[in-house]
Write a structure and sequence with these properties.
It is found in: Nucleus. One of its GO terms (cellular component) is nucleus. Belongs to the ASF1 family. One of its GO terms (molecular function) is histone binding. Keywords: Chaperone, Nucleus, Transcription, Transcription regulation. By secondary structure, the chain is mainly β. The chain has a domain at about 5-145: Sandwich (Immunoglobulin-like). About 0% of the residues lie in helices and about 45% in strands. Strands 2-9-8-7-4-5-12 form a 7-stranded mixed sheet. Strands 6-3-1-13 form a 4-stranded mixed sheet, with no helix packed on it. It is elongated and about 60 Å long. The protein starts with a strand and ends in a 7-residue tail after the last strand.
Amino acid sequence: MSIVTIRNVEWFNNPARFLDPYKFRVTFECIAPLKDDLEWRLIYVSSPGDEDLDQELDDCLVGPVPVGVNSFDFEGTPPNPSKIPPDDVLGVAALILTGSYKDQEFVRVGYYQNTEYDNDEMKENPPNPIIFERLVRDISTRFRVTRFQIKWFASSCTWRGTAIDLACRDVAPLQQGRPAAAGAAASAAVPSADDLDSPEDTGIAMGQKANGASS
């Protein structure tokens, strides 16, 4: 079983300008207390065939983590335009949110991001060089969740009478600053789902707001 399950990813500024920061809230459920931090990373993939071009936009440490439903707000910097091949700027790229515990990645949520100009004339006749200030991005509501088996604990333990063994793992297999965030964040409703690989079945809801989040 998985100790941590993402229940919701809520984007606060989608669509947005290409050069705007990414702002979203992650809500997750934890079924046993974790004394070490969870590490969350946001990665921009402009060229799927070349990992050297991947950009880690930001990461966030959350912990220690109590039992229950927790949430935190994440703000990630936009991609560095100079590191994106000109032919890969417009159109579809990938955005990946990963969760790790003790340097072990246990979940990866992948989104498609479409980038285009903000007016019809530039869409039909893209200027050269690219004018990044006129680009807008739109993150698809379709996403894919990949889960990885990890060892959550170094030894067996008991939590409220339930034995949690050293081999406590995910049920099924399904990646520049370092801001710290408090782990015991706000509570939130938990959608009912079966942790599968489609937006309807993953147990993860994708919400959107036009403006920033309120605390």
